[in-house]
Design goal:
The chain is of the alpha/beta class. It contains 9 helices and 13 strands. Strands 8-9-7-10-13-12-11 form a 7-stranded mixed β-sheet. The protein has a 6-stranded parallel β-sheet with strand order 2-1-3-4-6-5, sandwiched between helices. The radius of gyration is 19 Å and the shape is globular. The mean pLDDT is 96.
Length: 307
């Protein structure tokens, strides 16, 4: 029986992890009574007793928890931004070349950011294959459901009276300092951060990440990109879909409630659109965290996931 502790189980990521794991016959969830959920000693005791622990906490709290448990053999999976570029932590995107083996041997795993997951799935294989130069200056447009903003944003969208501005998509991260940018460049081997345009829209869950490219600036055309994706994502939780659109449209909510990701290529001989669709709480957060736990503990990689 796998003993699992979720530190921060009341947030959106923690709740989804709890929901996925609660019914698994091979998992025993370590639960703290309400009065001890904020007690540092009780939380640390639960963390070191667990085979795997999820840190669903703000960055500073995640750093403190990881430091307090420095000597523990527990597989710690941090869903915050705190350790995504930190030494000693394995970045938990299993679909990167050789990464699955690193995760399997790791005791400290940094779970990817939601926007970053789509960008990395699209760009990393093409940089590796020489299609996109490492010095390329890319842009990325990413549309997300409001659940990605956590409890506070969910309340803004679901509790009346509601600000009319919330009825339309809203750009954010306007200063180009979004917290996902460092991992996006680092995990793709890019020398420059991309221009990043995240947009939150009035739907609960789902994400659609788009990277636009000019064919003349690449080392291959759309056909070769499709071939690379087809081979790289032939199975598993990231899949290449040659015909992903819905009658000429592409819905950001198509993968809501699921823990997998769909990548596709659109455009023509001059301009290309790379797209990734997934649930911001699924492969963009909780689903990826459970996938990482499964790999690290030697379980079936997709155990407990919906895909």
């Amino acid at each position: 029986m796998i003993r699992v502790f979720i530190d921060g189980s009341s947030g959106t990521t923690g709740l989804r992890i709890f929901d996925r794991l609660e019914g698994r016959p091979d998992v025993a969830l370590i639960r703290l009574p309400e009065e001890l959920r904020r007690d540092p000693a009780a939380r640390l005791d639960a963390l070191v007793r667990a085979d795997a622990a999820f840190l669903c906490l703000p960055d500073d709290a995640a750093r403190a928890a990881a430091e307090a448990a420095a000597g523990a053999d527990t597989v710690i999976i941090d869903t915050s931004t705190a350790h995504r570029t930190a030494p000693g932590w394995v970045y938990g995107f299993a679909e990167l070349t050789g990464r699955r083996e690193q995760i399997a041997a790791a005791r400290r795993i940094a779970n990817p950011g939601c926007h970053a997951s789509g960008f990395i799935a699209l760009v990393a294989p093409l940089v590796e294959e020489g299609v996109i130069p490492r010095g390329a200056r890319l842009s990325c447009y990413s549309l997300t459901g409001y659940s990605g903003g956590g409890k506070k944003m969910i309340a803004q969208y679901e509790t009346g009276p509601r600000d009319p501005l919330l009825d339309a998509p809203r750009m954010y991260g306007l200063g180009q300092t979004h917290k996902h940018l460092p991992e996006m460049a680092a995990q793709c081997g890019l020398s420059s951060l991309p221009v990043f345009c995240p947009v939150v829209a009035p739907f609960y869950a789902g994400m659609e990440v788009t990277v636009p490219l000019f064919a003349e600036e690449l080392g291959a055309g759309a056909g070769e990109i499709r071939r690379i994706y087809g081979e790289r994502y032939a199975g598993g939780l990231v899949r290449f879909c040659p015909e992903a659109d819905e009658g000429g449209f592409l819905s950001a909510g198509a993968m809501a409630g699921r823990d997998d990701m769909q990548v596709a290529v659109f455009g023509n001989g001059e301009r290309i659109l790379l797209t990734a669709r997934f649930d911001n709480l699924g492969k963009g957060a909780s689903g990826a965290a459970i996938q990482n736990m499964n790999i690290a503990l030697g379980c079936e990689e997709t155990a407990g996931l919906k895909y």
